[in-house]
Specification:
The complex is a heterodimer of chains A (about 50) and B (about 450). Chain A has helices at about 1-15, 25-40. Chain A is mainly α. Chain B is globular. Classes of the chains: A mainly alpha (about 50), B alpha/beta (about 450).
Chain lengths: ~50, ~450
């Protein structure tokens, strides 16, 4: 799951890079990244511990 | 709903993680938030520089105790400066801040709190852990009977409930009667409030509306916060009987986040040890307490909060670890009996902390009023009732109406509480030669 979360984060970040600073994309990407961060808290942060 | 192994928990991985792995996770996260704050917050960098500490110095769990604590007065001191209004504790560019909230302000100047989208998602996630553990599910229709304003109150709970898929009903500006009628009309299944208000609503439902909440409404779950009542058996019993519902406690703070909760087993407050580090310190010796049953002061770190980090915050709350493990299967440690007390003499009224100095500041700022005043907190039924007695200086009697209105407004802004105002003839309130006793708490049958 941690790898999948990382891949999603990479894709979403790429989306922002190609947006041409269109606010309708950038602002929604920010929200997606915030949700992805919570997935990291719930899953990825544990990857090297369990 | 059938409860199986995984649907008992919001996050079965974290909530059943063995304690030694939780400690490893907490250390890793503590090191990360410490480094983040050192690099991005001038306030924290200054604090740690003055203590001769660098993030790399924290190598073990015990090293965490080398890190200086912070407290509310330090947060007050830094705010109001650049970047306005948060000051240099802010660890992100101000453009990234999307949520402003503040403490209740009843212990003095309110502490401002900045959150980014990421932090706001984190807030609602912390609440999702709480609500799921208390049995909330997507079939619930959750009513929020609080004044949606600058005080954080149940704001994040609203979004946490949404995250669970609950239907959320904001009862913000409605009065108590209208809230009860709306809960009945929409057949709400859950709500959140202070214990005082839970009981007060029951009182008003029966007394003024002829509604028996246990019989005529469909509330099955109530989450309480802001007062210890949720952890006091007699109060809990009264609430549960009034509403025919299960009542669960929660604990949190604007500066920290929603860090503790009861689960459906009601055996104490679980610390959410995946998102927070809670240390317990002997209030007299400063020694760190790890054994159950010994009360101490809670020092709390929000491990993932980034815009306005909260690292080793002295909550001034006293609590003790429970002896037994909870039957729910969560490995998060329990605080037996919830929050026992606070270390200072601030009094909780209607669920918010009230500092008499806040009232004094308002009263003494009104030139038409004399120097003396008196505040009485009493129970009217199950509700706290505050009366402020003041004196108009001679010649100002005709200003009473305006003064009363101004006082009510200013006190509401300053302390987040409502007051009855009584005018007394000048010179009739008690005068003191040495120490004044202007604050009288009559709720427990005596004076404080």
């Amino acid at each position: 799951m941690a790898q999948t979360i990382e891949a999603i984060k990479k894709q979403v970040t790429e989306l922002k890079e190609m947006s041409g600073e269109v606010q309708a994309i950038d602002r929604n990407v920010e929200r997606m990244l915030a949700s992805i961060r919570v997935l990291e808290i719930n899953v990825s942060d544990l990857a090297d511990i369990i | 709903m059938v409860t199986t192994g995984t649907d008992k928990y919001w996050n079965p991985i974290l909530e059943t993680l063995p304690q030694e792995k939780l400690r490893a996770l907490q250390l890793k996260k503590f090191q990360r938030i410490l480094k983040w704050s050192y690099e991005n917050s001038p306030f924290y960098r200054r604090l740690y520089h003055d203590a001769g500490l660098e993030p790399g110095d924290i190598k073990t769990f015990d090293d965490i105790r080398k890190v200086p604590k912070i407290e509310k007065s330090m947060l007050r001191e830094v705010q109001g400066k650049t970047p306005y209004p948060y000051g240099d504790i802010l660890s992100v560019p101000i453009e990234q801040v999307v949520e402003y909230h503040q403490t209740s302000g009843t212990t003095g100047q309110p502490v401002y709190q900045a959150d980014t989208w990421q932090d706001w998602e984190w807030w609602s996630e912390a609440w999702a852990y709480i609500l799921y553990a208390q049995g909330y599910r997507d079939s619930d229709r959750v009513f929020f009977p609080f004044g949606y304003n600058v005080f954080i109150a149940f704001w994040a709970a609203h979004y946490g409930a949404e995250k669970l898929g609950c239907e959320v009903i904001p009862g913000g500006v409605l009065n108590t009667e209208a809230r009860i009628l709306k809960m009945q009309e929409v057949r709400a299944t859950a709500f959140m409030a202070t214990p005082t208000y839970v009981l007060g609503m029951g009182d008003i439902a029966r007394g003024r509306l002829g509604i028996d909440p246990a019989r005529d409404l469909q509330i099955k779950t109530i989450t309480v916060a802001g007062e210890p009542g949720g952890s006091i058996p007699a109060t809990r019993k009264r609430m549960e009987e009034t509403w025919g519902a299960r009542v669960y406690g929660h604990v949190g703070a604007t500066e920290i986040g929603a860090w503790g909760y009861e689960c459906t087993y009601q055996s104490g407050l679980h610390i959410n040890e995946a998102l927070f580090l809670v240390e317990i310190e002997d209030d007299q010796t400063g020694e760190f307490i790890t054994e159950p049953g010994r009360p101490g002061r809670l020092i709390i770190t929000a491990l993932d909060r980034t815009a306005q980090p909260c690292i080793r915050f002295d909550s001034k709350d006293l609590a003790q670890l429970g002896v037994a493990e909870c039957e729910c299967g969560r490995t998060f440690r329990l605080l037996q009996g919830g929050i026992i007390n606070r270390t200072d003499d601030i009094t909780k009224v209607k669920g918010v902390l009230l500092a008499p100095t806040s009232i004094e500041e308002v009263v003494r700022g009104v030139p038409e009023l004399g120097d003396e005043y008196e505040v009485t907190v009493a129970k009217q039924g199950d509700l706290d009732d505050i009366t402020l007695k003041v004196e108009l200086i001679p010649g100002q009697e005709n200003t009473a109406g305006t003064i009363k209105s101004n006082l009510v407004d200013q006190l509401r802004v300053k302390t987040n509480l409502g007051y009855n105002i009584e005018f007394h003839e000048y010179g009739t309130l008690p005068r003191y030669d040495v120490k004044a006793k202007r604050f009288k708490d009559l709720r427990r049958g005596g004076e404080k």
